[in-house]
UniProtKB/TrEMBL annotation:
The entry's keywords: Oxidoreductase, Pyruvate
Chain ranges of the Thiamine pyrophosphate enzyme TPP-binding domain: 74-211
Classification via CDD domains: TPP_PFOR_porB_like
Keyword Oxidoreductase: yes
Segments crossing the lipid bilayer: none
Protein name, UniProt field: Pyruvate:ferredoxin oxidoreductase, beta subunit
Any Pfam family matching the protein: TPP_enzyme_C
Keyword Oxidoreductase belongs to the record: yes
Coiled-coil boundaries: none
GO biological process: organic acid metabolic process; sulfur compound biosynthetic process
Location of the region described as Disordered in the Swiss-Prot/TrEMBL record: 145-164
Length: 306
């Protein structure tokens, strides 16, 4: 399923197609990282792609009926049903003998970590042949920035006005526990890292999962022109780790590959300071966040040893 699109061994800016599969004029907020990532993702996947989008920001951004900026088929489905819908579409394609189409879920963190985790787990347990991308803007942004289980510890939302007390749910870890063939993290601010992970995902059969950090200007409370900078700070401070897990083996990717040594990371405060949602985080909360980040790094580095 890879060769028919002429996907190269490693994507570079020059090897990404000039063809656009997500056109200008979409309904996304200015500075939306999810739309930036979808534009790159569709360039990596190509025209033989079906997108399944549950209720989320992207169900609005990809177009109000009867018009859409998407040049590939898009199936809008219920909040909880994206993976189940993808499983059904894959089964229908196979019954028709169509094997050269990528079936891709593009769902938010609410529709993945919370409402949609049952259907995602079911698809993973069955090993259904689909790619599931969670674009994680760390809250229910489409309905007014309510807390999700994927919201970062310490972040203010409309339902955690003093900052979320609990740690962020580790959905990639949950998917690794399903023993699916491919799990990866990505960040919209590193498009080539994301594109190359998609390239590796399409070369594998079965359920593949990519968890994509997607900064959100209105929800995270930063100027829309700062989206790429915010995403890069998430990675450079170690708050978001880029890695991929395949065949039981884990490796760090992109800038994260040089950040195993904590001294090489930028101070976490640089990432927090640029976002209004952390404006009331006191020193004790920041120290707790640093501790959680260190624990996450220890876990990932231990996986990479294996």
């Amino acid at each position: 399923m890879v060769g028919h699109q002429g996907i190269t061994e490693t994507f570079t800016l020059k090897s990404l197609t000039d063809e656009e599969y997500l056109l200008p004029g979409n309904a996304a907020c200015p500075g939306c990282a999810a739309v930036m990532a979808m534009r790159i993702g569709l360039k990596a996947l190509g025209p033989r792609t079906v997108l399944i989008v549950p209720a989320c920001c992207m169900s609005v951004a990809q177009g109000h009926y009867p018009k859409t900026p998407s040049k590939v088929p898009v199936f809008n489905t219920a909040f909880a049903a994206s993976a189940a819908t993808a499983s059904g579409i894959r089964a229908a394609l196979e019954m028709k003998g169509i094997t050269d189409v990528y079936v891709v879920c593009w769902a938010g963190d609410g529709g993945t970590a919370d409402i949609g985790i049952q259907s995602l787990s079911g698809a993973a347990e069955r090993g259904d042949d689909l790619i599931y991308i969670c674009y994680d803007n760390e809250a229910y942004m489409n309905t007014g920035t309510q807390r999700s289980s994927s919201t970062s510890e310490g972040a203010r939302t409309t339902t955690t006005i003093t900052g979320k007390a609990e740690r962020k749910k580790d959905v990639p870890g949950i998917m690794m526990a399903h023993r699916i063939p491919y799990v990866a993290t990505a960040c919209a601010s590193y498009p080539l890292d994301f594109a190359n992970k998609l390239r590796r995902a399409v070369s594998i059969k079965g359920t593949r999962y990519i968890h994509l950090l997607s900064p959100c200007p209105p929800g995270w409370r930063y100027p829309s022109e700062k989206t790429v900078e915010v995403g890069r700070l998430a990675v450079e401070t170690g708050a978001w780790i880029l890695y991929e897990w395949t065949g039981g083996r884990c490796r760090l990717t992109g800038p994260s590959s040089g950040l195993a040594d904590r001294s090489r990371r930028r101070p976490l405060e640089e990432y927090l300071r640029i976002q209004g949602r952390f404006s009331e985080a006191d020193p004790s909360k920041i120290e707790a966040m640093k501790k959680r980040i260190d624990e996450e790094w220890e876990m990932i580095l231990e996986l990479c040893k294996g």
